[in-house]
Amino acid sequence: MSTTTVTPLTIEDAELLIAEARRAAEAAGVTVSVTVLDAGGHLLAFRRDDRAVLISGETSTRKAYTALQLNTATADLVDAVQPGGLFHTLPTALDRPLLFIAGGVPVQRDGRLVGAIGVGGGAPDQDHGFATTAVKALA
Questions:
Q1: Which is deepest, 26, 35, 41, 135, by most CB within 10 Å?
Q2: Rounded to an integer, what distance in angstroms lies between the CA atom of residue 68 and that of residue 71?
């Protein structure tokens, strides 16, 4: 059996993720909230732009949590919770803060899940793009 140590997300990683997501959002003229969670689902970093809608803080956190728990970008899960979808009852079946709106992206190192980022405040496709841009910058 092979054991490979994977470096967990650091606060420096989290700050880079937030900075890159915010940079992408600012370039698009969008104010956002960004949440970074570690592999255990614990808050590592959070930032809400002054003019971002207040609910974006909650949505960014729930998007990150959902991406982490399912190790999948929330953009790829939207159809799964529609009537007849594989996870149709999941949003109401658990007492967890899941949110199936694009903007949450898992963060992996060496093929292992080490955390997640969630972005809220823009249109779902924009939030997904900002989160994806941030994760690519970390690689």
A1: 35
A2: 5
Tokens 């949110």 locate to 99
Task: Read off the CATH number of the domain in which 44 is found.
Answer: 3.30.450.150
9 secondary structure, DSSP code: P
- Residue-number span of the structural domain to which 51 is assigned: 11-138
CB–CB of 80/87 below 8 Å? yes
pTM for the full predicted model = 0.91
Q: Average pLDDT, whole number, for the chain?
A: 92
**Rama region for 41: left / alpha / beta (φ>0; ψ in -120 to 50; rest):** left
pLDDT, tens digit, 9 for 90 and up, residues 39-68? 999 999 999 999 999 999 999 999 999 999
Q: In the numeric block, which tokens belong to residue 78?
A: 């939207």
